[in-house]
Amino acid sequence: xxxxxxxxxxxxxxxxxxxxxxxxxxxxxxxxxxxxxxxxxxxxxxxxxxxxxxxxxxxxxxxxxxxxxxxxxxxxxxxxxxxxxxxxxxxxxxxxxxxxxxxxxxxxxxxxxxxxxxxxxxxxxxxxxxxxxxxxxxxxxxxxxxxxxxxxxxxxxxxxxxxxxxxxxxxxxxxxxxxxxxxxxxxxxxxxxxxxxxxxxxxxxxxxxxxxxxxxxxxxxxxxxxxxxxxxxxxxxxxxxxxxxxxxxxxxxxxxxxxxxxxxxxxxxxxxxxxxxxxxxxxxxxxxxxxxxxxxxxxxxxxxxxxxxxxxxxxxxxxxxxxxxxxxxxxxxxxxxxxxxxxxxxxxxxxxxxxxxxxxxxxxxxxxxxxxxxxxxxxxxxxxxxxxxxxxxxxxxxxxxxxxxxxxxxxx
Length: 412
Known about the structure:
The protein contains 13 helices and 14 strands. It has helices at residues 20-28, 64-68, 72-88, 111-124, 133-137, 141-150, 165-178, 196-204, 242-247, 276-289, 307-321, 334-337, 344-358, and strands spanning 5-13, 35-36, 49-50, 100-105, 156-157, 184-191, 233-241, 254-263, 298-300, 329-331, 360-361, 384-385, 390-397, 401-408.
């Protein structure tokens, strides 16, 4: 039997703030977290900008010895999970640890560990490689470390679907709670890939913006968009079975009503040109929730600021919502924090929940003139106070992965 699933906790590490309130207030204020890359010398690089996390101290969330045995993506994931569990008021002394699980994905894991140790291999030989290279590097280690840090012994998975990772992770966690595999799931995404090989790789793919103006680099749906800006961070939510949450008197932020996931089966980097795959994910999320297009107030778009994504996602929203597509508010969180890759869906889910909770849709920063074919309401200019009862969060990943989550206001 299908069970109702609610959001009871949230945690965020982002380029505009290292907790949910800072992140959300930043979105409301149109704070852009993009700036010069400081992690390495970009002298030889076409791309100069990224959305880096600032002032992050892992020791605020874990002991120094544990932090040293984690790469940055794992540290971000553990930090966001720590916030989310504290926010939810989960007391593991009172829980069956085998019914509390983790679904926190990373699209890449640690490119930095690869870079460091490969350099060492070439310069000093195989005998000098760090014995912990593999467990530091592999992408499941954020989920693994979260389980270890907090004693969560239930289902522990790392969904890897490139830029759809965070959304798929929350969706699969939703299913786990819905069908009784867990009572509580810690779910989301984490990523830290702003490093030489990461930036060079995406630059070679011509996926990144070469703008040197932070305010005009990530500008989803704008006619001048020229690629995405790499971001980093983590977004984690606590999903809980409704009766379990009510029994312990938890604060309920919103309910997850539906989840849809599809594949374009079309191209390794470009979404399907007619938007059919992404549209079907949205339709499936609506069907799962027992809702219709007219129920949707807000769509948090994948909105990467690449030509293909923004155009084809616009087509997808029209396909999924029909005439109602012209009446919904749409915005892209990536306009302010860049593209967090595997973590994007995690932080964007939080943006949707906050929109419902606070009755506000944030603007798409940097959008001045809509591009050809981009003719919907992308919340240009300023954010809008409005009643948000139902919000859809979209993520599209290389490989043709499409995922949509539907959040709705919780009602008895």
